Amino acid sequence: MTRTRALGSLLVLSIALGTQGCGGGSDGVRLLELPPVDPRAAREYQAGVRLLARGGRGREERAAEHFTAALAIDSNLWEAHYNLGVIARRGGEVRDAVERFELARAIQPAAGEVLVGLAEARYELGETDAAAGLLTDYVRGHPDSIPVRLALCAVERQRGNHDIALSHAREVLIREPRNVRALTEIGRIYRARAEYDVAQLVVRKAMAIEENSASLHNEMGLLELSRGDTQAAFQEFAAAIELDAGFAAAHLNQGSVLLHAGDYAAAGAEYRAVLQHDPTNVDAMVALGAALRGQADHRGAQRQYEAVLTDHPNHPAALFNLGVLLAEFLDQRPRARELFDRFLRVAPSTGEHREMAQRYLQDIPAPAAEGGT
Question: Structure pTM?
């Protein structure tokens, strides 16, 4: 008997690569038939989905409890493993997310969203070859799976394999000539190649298909930044925000430019705008900490980082930034050493700050062993 699909919507989270999950079987791939879902497990699962849809860290925690309870009743509920992975990744617990996605994959290997989530998480950990391999194998077996092919395109682009990435984006356009995400990926590839005029033409073609798109204005802003035209980038980010005042990516990008320009107060205002719409946005919380540090509000910055770590104890950016703050500004080097040590245990193996964290560990003396002389 085919397993019932009346479980409610899956929450799909895709950050690092700019992709989106594809939903159970939505790309035409036939999923494995599993035993019917236990009605008690379905009720627990649906309660978790409702909480996630409402947002907020507290609701995420309660949703995780419901998903865990659902799995205790029905161990084949791969969707619950998947959503637990989504929650873990959102909180910076990427290794836990990988474990959950692997459990979901073992039960339902044909689910495209699971492969995308797993590949993105492995990419985030620096396991780029593994991420590309997962998606490549899937696309070979399911050549018409557009969401997974787009995820593979993004992975190959970020690995610098631009010709391969272009080939996948063009395969999508053969199947769906007006696919805006494929056009966006092509624009990103040409931007990475510093072929800015071509990239602009492609993004404008996407804009002609999807008018008044905050996402595409944000994309154009990133393109202008790559050109070195900060003013034009600001105008595009502002246009994105005007279309969608709650669009976090545009606020974060605007804030990043201001932060690098040394306008810490204005950057902080952008990050607070994100938090006004979503008080649990971890990226904005960490970035606000950096803006506060730039304004010499070291205690305020410390509160931001510690608020993140209260809910996400292994969040790499919060660990690293709090470590720097304690070591350089608050004269708490022993605690900073502990944070850098934790950071190196959880951060991606190819992360940009690993070398700096290792230098801090070399410079800060290790605590004397108890009972030593």
Answer: 0.81
